[in-house]
Amino acid sequence: MAESLHSGIWEISYIELTLRLVLAAVLGGLIGLEREFGYHPAGFRTHILVCLGSALIMILSIYGFTQFAAESNVRMDPARLAAQVISGVGFLGAGTILRTGVSITGLTTAASLWVVSAIGLSVGAGFYFGSVLVTVMVLFSLFLLNKLEKSFSQTKKFREIRIQIPDGSTALNVTLAKIAEFGLSIHKIQIENPIVGTEAEERVVTVRLLVKAGKPAHFQKVLLALPGIPGVRNVECE
């Protein structure tokens, strides 16, 4: 009788198994939808797969070795596979982090993948309330707090402008004056090595300007004005 009760702890019905996997797919998909709507690297299907896989690994870790539960020399450890998910999902998150110039994107998506894996583990362990609660909190953070964050950081965000001008040209001085005219502050100027142009005597340099605009509209006006400056060959921004 005692052995039967002991073995029952490590068993799960097909209905309960299905419930956990379906719930993991739903909760992961809800978070993935927000990422999908924002055109982020990891979207709807990726989050479902991460959450579903985590849930299955958690279920496997708890119930996948029931045939050894009654062995006297075997000690069941439900957390052994879950620990590998927590550390192993990092490589997937790292693939969504991109650095372009001075800007880094994908950090929030990487964090959402990590949280989704934790939600999957919780669902797989049958911790339903905590899983649903965290999903609601994550969606609140991604939807509402994202808008609040943008409203605070909109006037503090640094942007990079890249222009190409002939080496030794006065176009840089005119560009700097034009940027100041629109109320943007310049925090860093970096001039890259000159590149030989179409003509033998022409050398073109790329100038990187790290600027901060008081209003987004001012930044857009600068981008429209810079191509009209004599000597400015190309204008790019991040």
UniProtKB/TrEMBL annotation:
<keyword id="KW-1133">Transmembrane helix</keyword>
<feature type="transmembrane region" description="Helical">
    <location>
        <begin position="12"/>
        <end position="32"/>
    </location>
</feature>
<feature type="domain" description="ACT">
    <location>
        <begin position="160"/>
        <end position="238"/>
    </location>
</feature>
<feature type="transmembrane region" description="Helical">
    <location>
        <begin position="114"/>
        <end position="145"/>
    </location>
</feature>
<dbReference type="InterPro" id="IPR002912">
    <property type="entry name" value="ACT_dom"/>
</dbReference>
<feature type="transmembrane region" description="Helical">
    <location>
        <begin position="81"/>
        <end position="102"/>
    </location>
</feature>
<comment type="similarity">
    <text>Belongs to the MgtC/SapB family.</text>
</comment>
<feature type="transmembrane region" description="Helical">
    <location>
        <begin position="44"/>
        <end position="69"/>
    </location>
</feature>
<dbReference type="InterPro" id="IPR049177">
    <property type="entry name" value="MgtC_SapB_SrpB_YhiD_N"/>
</dbReference>
<keyword id="KW-0812">Transmembrane</keyword>
<keyword id="KW-1003">Cell membrane</keyword>
<dbReference type="InterPro" id="IPR003416">
    <property type="entry name" value="MgtC/SapB/SrpB/YhiD_fam"/>
</dbReference>
<keyword id="KW-0472">Membrane</keyword>
<protein>
    <submittedName>
        <fullName>MgtC/SapB family protein</fullName>
    </submittedName>
</protein>
<dbReference type="Pfam" id="PF02308">
    <property type="entry name" value="MgtC"/>
</dbReference>
